[in-house]
UniProtKB/TrEMBL annotation:
Keywords, alphabetical: GTP-binding, Nucleotide-binding
UniProt cross-references to Gene3D superfamilies, sorted A to Z: P-loop containing nucleotide triphosphate hydrolases
Protein name (record): GTP-binding protein
GO molecular function: GTP binding; GTPase activity
Keyword flag Ubl conjugation: no
Organism annotation: Atlanticothrix silvestris CENA357
Length: 165
């Protein structure tokens, strides 16, 4: 079985831990827990005849007091750049993080994850901004860790990207 390290990257409170919990354990909690350092989970993803053992590194969220340690990303085969659609600032943070991640580990597959899609009435990110990101050639998937929308798709899509290089 092929093992692949995948990192969850984004601002604080974007739903990185909730996405992992939904994907790995099929659960969602309304409680907010701050990730301290890194939380590691595993899940096998099947793509065509291949089985990938995803080692999911859920990194603490970046904020004005704490920057993500780029050393945590070493050896990553891909990453999810997680944005909270109800907080526009998390999109700006994601753009900044993507540049830093690429500087640190080079170009590896990633997906921009627009999380909290179940809360669209509170959405701060415009469709035109999403379209602009897609125009740059980025993969963008809307998710809801709360109801599971798009979660499986995100990890399946990333697995395909990792396999095809």
């Amino acid at each position: 079985m092929i093992q692949k390290k995948i990192c969850m990257v984004g601002a604080f409170a974007t739903g990185k831990t909730s996405l992992v919990a939904r994907f790995v354990h099929s659960i969602f909690s309304e409680r907010y827990y701050t990730t301290v350092g890194v939380k590691i989970d595993k899940k096998v993803v099947s793509i065509q005849e291949n089985k990938l053992n995803f080692i999911l590194w859920d990194l603490y969220g970046e904020d004005e007091f704490q920057k993500v340690r780029m050393s945590y990303l070493r050896g990553s085969s891909g990453y999810l750049l997680v944005v909270d659609g109800t907080r526009h600032s998390t999109l700006e943070k994601a753009f900044n993080l993507q540049i830093r991640v690429e500087d640190a580990i080079g170009q590896v597959p990633f997906i921009l994850v627009l999380n909290k899609w179940d809360m669209t009435e509170e959405w701060e990110i415009e469709n035109s901004e999403i379209d602009a990101v897609i125009q740059k050639g980025w993969s963008v998937i809307k998710t809801s860790a709360k109801n599971g929308l798009g979660v499986e798709e995100v990890f399946q899509t990333l697995a395909e990207k990792v396999l095809t290089g």
